[in-house]
């Protein structure tokens, strides 16, 4: 399916007077449609790497090419457009809006992007709601559903704009082991059905070991990168 994402010689240094280097010459490529996990201890640099992949932060040096677009010289507005069109995010905390229903929450990124909600968007939201198993609670307020259901709603929301890449930052970090497995299986199903590329940061070895590829970051270096078939 080709390369969706290429990172070449990525370095990240924070601070001017006292420099703190967090990433060292990171080189990674991600195939379209792949399912990847990134593991590492706290402070290893994996969250910084995730923010750089998601264009939320810029590297000090190095190149990132997303879906054929070199992001090196893009300004904040151009990066925001690319991000909205290409990337969906799932965080450890679902960040659903409490005053909105499940359906309204899922439609929020579409509404932000297009300033309105079309019948096609509602149809896609219905499809995603069905896919994540929330049809019975779609008109419930987001505070009236369980933690696992909230995270499934967050996954559906991340998919509403049809991104090619989903970045998950500890997406199962707040869930019990049974719900973690349910949510993980759902992400794998979406990966197979929609061919969406997934990159998950996780502390959970059980989750990481179910991905098609495991990348380990330690002290800002990639120390392991293995296919997991």
Description of the structure:
By secondary structure, this protein is an alpha/beta fold. It has one domain: P-loop containing nucleotide triphosphate hydrolases (Rossmann fold, 3-Layer(aba) Sandwich). It has helices spanning 46-53, 76-86, 102-114, 119-131, 147-159, 177-194, 205-208; strands spanning 3-14, 20-31, 35-39, 61-66, 69-70, 87-91, 165-169, 197-201, 213-218, 221-227. The strands form two sheets. Strands 6-7-8-3-9-10 form a six-stranded mixed beta sheet, sandwiched between helices. A four-stranded antiparallel beta sheet has the order 2-1-4-5, with helices on one face. InterPro entries: AAA+_ATPase, ABC_transporter-like_ATP-bd, ABC_transporter-like_CS, ABC_transpr_LolD-like, MacB-like_ATP-bd, P-loop_NTPase. One of its GO terms (biological process) is amino acid transport. GO terms for molecular function: ATP binding; ATP hydrolysis activity; transmembrane transporter activity. Pfam families: ABC_tran.
List keywords for this structure.
single chain; 35% helix; 6-stranded mixed sheet; alpha/beta; 7 helices; 229 residues; Rossmann fold; globular; 4-stranded antiparallel sheet
What is the percentage of strand-forming residues?
Answer: 25-35%
Total tally of structural domains: 1
Largest sheet: 6 strands, mixed
The overall strand count is 10
Based on Cα principal axes, name the global outline: globular
Q: From N to C, what is the helix and strand string?
A: EEEHEEHEHHHEHEHEE
CATH topology: Rossmann fold
How far apart the termini lie comes to: 18 Å
By CATH, the superfamily comes out as P-loop containing nucleotide triphosphate hydrolases
How many helices? 7
CATH architecture: 3-Layer(aba) Sandwich
Average pLDDT, all residues:
86
Strand order of the largest sheet: 6-7-8-3-9-10
Look at the structure and give the CATH class: Alpha Beta
Helicity range of the residues?
25-40%
Point out poorly predicted stretches: none
Spatial extent as radius of gyration:
18 Å
Structural class call reads: alpha/beta
Keywords: Amino-acid transport, ATP-binding, Nucleotide-binding, Transport
Domain ABC transporter: 5-226
Protein name: ATP-binding cassette domain-containing protein
GO molecular function, one term: ATP hydrolysis activity
